[in-house]
What does this fold into?
Amino acid sequence: MADTPEPAPSRARPKSGKPTLRTIADLTGFAVTTVSRALGNAPQISVETRRRVHEVAAEIGYLPDRAAQRLKTGRTNVISVLLDPHEEILGYGISLMHGLAKALKDTPYHLIVTPNFINDSNVDAVRHIVRNGMADGLIFSRTEPFDPRVRLLLENGFPFVTHGRTEFSTPHPYVDYDNFAFAYEATRRLISRGRRKPMIILPPKRMTFTQHLLHGFMTAVREAGVAYEIPDEIDLDCPVEQIRDYMSRRAGKPDAPDGFACGGEVSALATITGMSDHGLTLGIEYDIVAKRTSKLLSQIQPKVETIYEDLTDTGEQMGRVLLARIAGEDAAGLQVLLKPQIGFAEV
Amino acid sequence: MADTPEPAPSRARPKSGKPTLRTIADLTGFAVTTVSRALGNAPQISVETRRRVHEVAAEIGYLPDRAAQRLKTGRTNVISVLLDPHEEILGYGISLMHGLAKALKDTPYHLIVTPNFINDSNVDAVRHIVRNGMADGLIFSRTEPFDPRVRLLLENGFPFVTHGRTEFSTPHPYVDYDNFAFAYEATRRLISRGRRKPMIILPPKRMTFTQHLLHGFMTAVREAGVAYEIPDEIDLDCPVEQIRDYMSRRAGKPDAPDGFACGGEVSALATITGMSDHGLTLGIEYDIVAKRTSKLLSQIQPKVETIYEDLTDTGEQMGRVLLARIAGEDAAGLQVLLKPQIGFAEV
DNA sequence: GACGGGACTTATAACGTTTTAAATGAAGTA
DNA sequence: TACTTCATTTAAAACGTTATAAGTCCCGTC
It folds into this structure.
């Protein structure tokens, strides 16, 4: 009647530009259901329809609404990563996350970060995530032989992958570095340089990989029949100055070690400083072989021999493994042990 | 009739334990709407009702479904942080994230991480997040004077906070470190130690804080009337070895600098190594004042004087600022400039 | 010419919230 | 008594998606 140029309302007015299934439905003339299935490439939808729907979807930049999908399907499309605050391993968190993100790229998964404030083993965070369905999968590190987080997750059938192994009989996905091989090789190198009393600086005892490192160290030591020493006052989680002080004190007493296998770059530096407090020089009175996780320090202190652990790669593998696990693959097949590249260790 | 002990079906059977508003409604006898409002502490709901509803909710461990809330309200309860892969600043990403997480604790916000793979300025990621409503707020660093990300966000009225300032006339929330003060103080310290030709190693030119550092440096230099030098072949983003090589080469030529203001710990170490390649010793032939962001290196190289930047605190402040911004506070009031604690710099 | 069955498509009902608009009583007022 | 007001509660609709269960057509078969 009047001059109200009301545009033909399809069904509901799109409130704000954001395209939805309905937008595509209106544009193509198909029903919302059809569009949904077409986008999901359901075989019952004709090829031509699928093509057309995809075309229009791409054209208008359609992106499914995460909230709606999550509400309907129960899948969150979220991977949660528990972050420990330890700084010993340079760039640990960031490298891992970059690897993870690389694996999660081009998947619908988002990476959400839950730092660990409270206790050392973040069981509460894990419980919260499992009970409230906050994620589809979980990632964490620094596992203990009978890690309560792993137990909880296994009991609940919740997908996860650890950086580090456990000793549960039920297999679970993990990506781990062969710390036995690292410690063995590091110690052998010290010995082959003529060092006769190697020492290894270990992570806290409760962690699984501490045992692996110890085992590698002891194997090399026994094979060579040399003396050895394991400090019980310090570990890799200690503040730097504590390690330095310890080394300094130890160097002043009889039968001081003359070779050091260090699980991280920071402890290697602390060792150098501690020893030099006593006038001892790296490469002369003693040697160090350290695990290297960044590009930083080996460039600075070329006399520290290093064996590389690629944390970005680790993260990427963890991402892949977790995705496979979420997709239903068997846990037993999702266990990755990354070997130190002994031959190319200096790269 | 028969002996089917069918329990009175309230309305719908709860399919899997997870409590919902309906659960509370059934338990208390109120309607779902009432429960929802009671939990939101709507003033129209009687005090007694609110109390009772909260009580039951706590009892059964009710937690609102994020997906449903997000779908209905449009709010995502997500904060997105764009992560740069630069390693120069030790522990940058992790410290910041811990601070952020601290600020976000006890809020409904989750922290999701979007690493930057592609180009240096992650405009695409920002655009994606804004256009598809992937988050309620955004956090990023390394701003440029007319940072395209900031422009995009300002245009769209999207809440964000930067680590670093810009030169847009429209104010926006930021938390920044006073790099002018840092460079000024660092340079003055070098000069007061008798150094007569300071050099400053700057970040890439395009970043805003490069100008601040330069300004601080030049101010100190001009005040003292000493010579100075600014390397144009290297910056803080360079690989370590490149910095070391440059220093080594420069030390061999005439009029070499005798004092270094370093924007990070790694470049300080690289400088030390480069200089020592030429037989020059820190504290003898030259001095260094560096920005310190971790506890690691100053313990190792006590002769490097440092000025501290607390990145965890920075992260926490950024979190607070962003929350305030999301809550509607004015951008102009949400600009924080963190001063170097000159007096307590050695802590 | 009715019937079974492919090959496609679709209406409807959820998922768990919040929002809008209304309903219910119990007072208070005229 | 009837009419308003207030305080409190509620039903119904909607957010955008997917799952379930029906539709359509059209073709070949008996």
